[in-house]
Amino acid sequence: MPEITYRQAVKDAMVEEMRRDERVFLIGEDIGTYGGAFGVSAGMLEEFGPERIVETPISEDAIVGAAAGAAMIGMRPIAEIMFMDFILLAMEPLVNQAAKARYMFGGKATVPMVIRMPSGSGTGAAAQHSQSLETILMHIPGIKVVAPSTPYDVKGLLISSIRDLNPVCFVEHKLLYKEKGEVPDEEYTIPLGVADIKREGSDITVVSSGIMVHKSLKASEILADEGISVEVVDPRTLKPLDVDTISKSVKKTGRMLVVHEAVKTAGWAGEIMASISETPAWDYLDAPMRRLAGKDVPIPYNPKLEAAAVPQVDDIVQEIRAIVHNKY
Amino acid sequence: MPTPFIMPKMDMDQESVFIVEWLKKEGELVEKGEPVIIVETDKITSEVEAPASGKLAHILYGENVEAPVTEVIAYILAEGESEADLPDSGTQTAPAEEVLEETEESAQPKETPGKIATPLAARMAKEKNLDLSLIPAEGEKITKDDIVAYLKEGDQVQPRVKTPATPAARRLSSERDVALDQVEGSGPRGRVQAADVLEAASDQKAKFIGIEPSFASGETVPLSNMRRRIADRLTASYQETPHIYLTVEVDMFEAEQSRKRMNTLAVEEGSSPISVTAYLVRTVAWALKGHSMLNASLTDEGIAVWEDINIGVATSIDEGLIVSVIPNADRQSIREINQKLRYLTKQAREGALTREEVQGGTFTISNLGMYGIQSFTAIINPPQSAILAVGALKRKPIVVDDQDNIAVRPMMIMTLGVDHRLVDGAVAAAFLAELVKAVENPEYLLM
Fold it and tell me: How many angstroms separate the CA atoms of A238 and A271, rounded?
């Protein structure tokens, strides 16, 4: 299998779907000549033209509103929000219109749209361009939230998201664009709502997504030398959440740590822990479930503080050690 | 507020200590810094000092028992305090961890530091044995209402479960029919973990099968940590190390003459007489310099040949056996070694050896000559590769020259035990020959 970047995998998914289905189009800021803020759509304008690579004024409200409307009349829009932080400007069309239409019209209208949004810190972009706001989106019924961690996952999941009949918020961590991985040439899809065990282990289950999957895997390597066997579960889709896979893993290991970059308070780690405590896995827990998440602060501009604000490999190592050795 | 007496942690990976003796009884007065308990860890017996001055109370762990470290083992009552001031007083079953938690809570900043109480509130607090400093006040003074509210709140914070346990431990306890309150928890604050239940379950099974001793025993002496450690280490060494033994008889005539002269000088100088052991330590160290395989250890990576020559000397003490170490014995004079040995023996008998004084040995000498033992074999002290067992000096008629003349000489039998995995018989023999040469001709040490 050829190795490609996460960025390339996102582009390939969009290009292949646009070739396959003429209803699919891309809408957003600077996505044409400039190729997108992170270069994802570079070259797409040349292939598909301005009719299908729709550049908009600086208005997220307009991007999402237009995409939602287009979806309702039968198109398959992919909207690109330059930074996830800006989705807040489009909450009205997303939350009150796109998320509700299918329910309010008894299924007569569907809203098959994808909103792609780069999230997270690590690029020195400071507080207004570094947030991880997926929990806010997860809270809204009618929206699916996908956050892939590898080139393979991102391509398969983006294709599934484009074909899904509901609004899908597609979260791409900025630091992942350069990440390389094997992706098959032939067409494939990954169903939404199915978690993936990224590493098998027996002592503790670590649930993490996006960039934190990679950090958790590095931490697992370090801990393996100490005889701690870590299972890393990547939900891939945060909503709907594959509680079953996580529950089975926790039943096996008896311990769970949830790691995410989003701030801890009301973050999705709490949601996962609550879900697990409602499953039979509860009776197999041999330690309190714990969260390792972003500090409750806006992401700082200073690079040292920026790194300190979100979980790093060393933090994950220490937290797992503490849980496994009952030292917290 | 009574001061919790917390068992200190003396070693990084230590979980418990063995309480040998309480030097003070419940109710006795102790001074801060005064030794109160004698405890035994893996190797060392040491004293634990009182954390505060006052009356010793509520001892939770008696003598000859294991006590967990970093947990409360007793309390010290300040003047005017009584048992009633103890957190959770009266309940014998209250595990230490709950007590600890409460003291931790109360250690948090109070809402009303130093607030004074109304006379009524003060009287109520006295009657109920409440610590006024712990009672939060609504207004500027602690009032009757504050006391009532505090008492009511106190009623409410009873723990929901008596035995803290993880969900997995609870499930297993019901599946395996193990009573949770009978299980000793190894988790934080004594919480019962799944592994604790499994262990208890297998203990239960063992009991059921009946591994009771079938013979009448007089008295069962509890295994001290030291005894247990000796047992474990020596069993492992005996089972895992293929020992071979080489025995020689040494003529100690010259050595004894030399020792006599040294002792005359020592007496003149006012220092202590040189012991045979000190003389042997020096000689063995000298001989080891040319025979590094006997100053080595077998490791997973290969044979570690030690640069330093640290001679361990086995010393018998009441509780068992301890090997104290003379570091760099090849670079010390006999007088220095002698002084050190006397000091170490004294410390060992008093149980006051420090960790440094028993670690790092690369070769061990065990001398049972003082008991009149002629010769014996010894088990290698892992991870070392050799041990020298020394018997008593015995005057015997022997042939002393090639004219077959017989003389009476002080003879001594030495048996060298080596780890055959890294030391072959010939290598051991070469070392032993070198050693005999130096023991019989002390001048070699000067050359």
Answer: 10
